[in-house]
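Researcher: Following up on the earlier apo prediction. This time include the ligand. It's MGD, with the SMILES given after the sequence.
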Amino acid sequence: MHKAAPAHDQGDEDLEVGRPTAVAAGMSAVLHSVAHSVREMGVGRSLTSLLKVNQVDGFDCPGCAWPDPDRRSQTEFCENGAKAVAEEATRRRVTADFFARHSIADLAGRSDHWLGQQGRLAEPVVRRPGATHYEPVTWPEAYDLVADELGALADPDEAIFYTSGRTSNEAAFAYQLLVRAFGTNNLPDCSNMCHESSGAALTETLGIGKGTVLLDDVEDTDLIVICGQNPGTNHPRMLTSLERAKAHGARIVAVNPLPEAGLLRFKNPQTRRGLVGTGVELADRFLQIRVNGDLALFQAVNARLIARDQVTGDVLDHDFIATHTDGFDAYAAHLADLDPEAVRAATGLGTTAIDGLVDEVVAADRIIVCWAMGLTQHRNSVATIREIVNFLLLRGNIGRQGAGACPVRGHSNVQGDRTMGIYEKPSAAFLDRLGAEFGFAPPAEHGHDTVAAIRALRDGTARAFFAMGGNFVSAAPDTDATLAALARDSFTAHVSTKLNRSHTCPGEVSLILPCRGRTDVDPQADGPQHVSVEDSMGMVHASRGHLDPPAPDVPSEVEVVSQVARRLVADRTTADWVGMQADYGLIRDHISRVVPGFEDYDARVVEGFTLPNGPRDSRTFATATGTARFTVNPLEVLTVPEGRLLLQTIRSHDQYNTTIYGLDDRYRGIRQGRRVVFAHPDDLTHLGFADGDQVDVVSEWDDGERRAPGFRLVAYPAARGTCAAYFPEANVLVPLDSTAEVSGTPTSKSIIVRFEPI
Ligand SMILES: Nc1nc2c(c(=O)[nH]1)N[C@H]1C(S)=C(S)[C@@H](COP(=O)(O)OP(=O)(O)OC[C@H]3O[C@@H](n4cnc5c(=O)[nH]c(N)nc54)[C@H](O)[C@@H]3O)O[C@H]1N2
Ligand SMILES: Nc1nc2c(c(=O)[nH]1)N[C@H]1C(S)=C(S)[C@@H](COP(=O)(O)OP(=O)(O)OC[C@H]3O[C@@H](n4cnc5c(=O)[nH]c(N)nc54)[C@H](O)[C@@H]3O)O[C@H]1N2
Ligand SMILES: [Mo]
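Model: Understood. Below is the ligand-bound prediction.
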């Protein structure tokens, strides 16, 4: 049995549980964002930064990847975007004397919330072998140490290079070049835990691992189906688009095990009516699905569409199917055997609910399906997303105005990082172009994704860990296993803006390298630099920071990469690392020759541009057959043994992944605490518990049990048989080996658990 004690200041003595709300945003969101910003940044810095968010001459919001509208309002941000900005632009500083006061053991006992609150990292620090504390180090010494430690490895594949999704295109491209020049494709990223399942399913069936819609499509369509996503908290600006879609006559169907506030009703804080009125009803129909039921739901819908077409002949888009797809006959034959009992068991939905959705679908000429983590973090996630593609193909909902697939990305540049080559399985074509551009032979063998990287560290086949952002330890599954794996490292280095749990389990030699973020100015030898990012819909634009950095000598991410590269791989490629650091335009020039769709990048990025997208632009599909592909996906119902529930892990309204802004989850009625489990009152009764009980949550897996101690049960209108707890507190429960088929994503949304009274 693995056991994790809660961090010592993480007690939830003040926890209050109230009623959930059914409406998102409105005046309270404005007040919350202003209060939070002023507390962290002060009035002046708040104004300078918030007025520059998502403006043409400003910076891209470091919050989510939802695109910016063309005509931006003066305040193109949301409550949670404002919190993301304040988190980075805070005036608090973590300097070397902080690390003198706090030993590593002390830091390891602190909560994620406390760690993040200490402020921006301002000085590089090192932990030397056997030391109990981090101590100051000069920048040149720090870079030398990185080069010496990595250079001393017997094999480049012994190093892991992680990336989170805030890194700019320029930094990401330079970083992957450094890593490949060093000699490995060990480039796991947060995407492995996020939309990898979407990328895998869409690449196979549509020939591109990205969505096929633009903002205009979402705002002018007939039906939007939103599955496994909580936009009111995680993509609040999407609610504005949904409101516009409704104004144009669209209908919205929400598919979710929880009645999330933002899906049900929205008061747009950017309009007067939204500030004072009752807001608009968003979802016209809510299907409260059982966790992991979506594959069955889409199969049931698709089977009904095919059956209705057999009667009327006008439900399916026969021309589209004949011209642009393959595999329809096998698919239709497979669905003919669909077992209604299996559908009911998997979805928890009755036939009326499913028939109702089918009626909506048949009435809608143009349909968009949006999804996020509720679909991607299950064992059958790739199959589920393939099934959504089947659904879209049946009625020709790809490559038409107002129709298509819309995986809604998380981190603000996670899609761009992948486009730039942050990928452990790069294509041969990409490597060929990269090698030709820089006169070297990149390694061809595929590298480790996140889970494989943890295994390699655990087994000792990898010994060094370098992170470009993120918080690997708290984001990864199986926290105790990940902590133990990282602690075996001979060397770790984290390029970070804020202190986090990953810094508290150093390798033998360990560095924390502070860096500049989106909001900071970035002066280099050739003048002030801007970077660029790609949003969830493949639109690329520039981002310029305006604020003073935490300390004058804190480098940009590009500078860190360039300094390490000059010491580690200077003679291995033709890259001019000094020149690229002085002028990021040079990096963009390289990108324009290596990455398709980025021609004339440096000039075009000023205005911004949209990347080409075959399925969307011209119904061309770069798949194995050159057509869009129907796929047959076996339906296996995830059965939960008696006395157990299916746990999903979610974000509160007051966090950004592992960064905890505060301890409230306003829309779900939670205040001043995070160790809660939401479950249906009848399920609690059935299991012999009641609202308010304190329990340990225990997950069950082939290799044994895992325990998350000290949670309060909250009676909540969750789908029957399911429950929910917050990420990252519940990550100890996610078994390392429980991953999605094909994509390898940890199954953070379907974990079998039981409760034990304490
Ligand atoms: N403020 C804020 N913004 C963020 C983030 C943040 O932490 N804070 N994180 C960013 C990142 S990296 C990402 S990836 C996104 C995440 O955005 P979301 O995917 O919205 O985030 P989660 O909280 O994981 O929510 C998952 C949703 O799916 C539902 N769900 C769970 N299981 C199932 C299922 O089996 N079927 C269906 N249909 N629904 C299910 C849950 O009830 C919940 O509503 O947000 C990004 N934006
Ligand atoms: N159980 C469970 N686990 C999950 C999920 C879940 O839903 N459930 N979601 C998964 C998902 S979708 C994701 S995307 C991952 C997130 O995994 P990560 O991206 O690794 O985690 P974050 O919490 O976003 O990383 C926060 C840290 O990034 C650093 N940082 C912030 N901005 C910058 C910057 O501009 N530059 C640099 N260099 N550093 C910066 C700060 O030091 C901060 O502490 O977690 C995954 N883990
Ligand atoms: Mo994510």
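Model: Residues 2-18+645-757 form a domain with the Barwin-like endoglucanases fold (CATH 2.40.40.20).
Researcher: Noted. I'll compare it with the apo version next.
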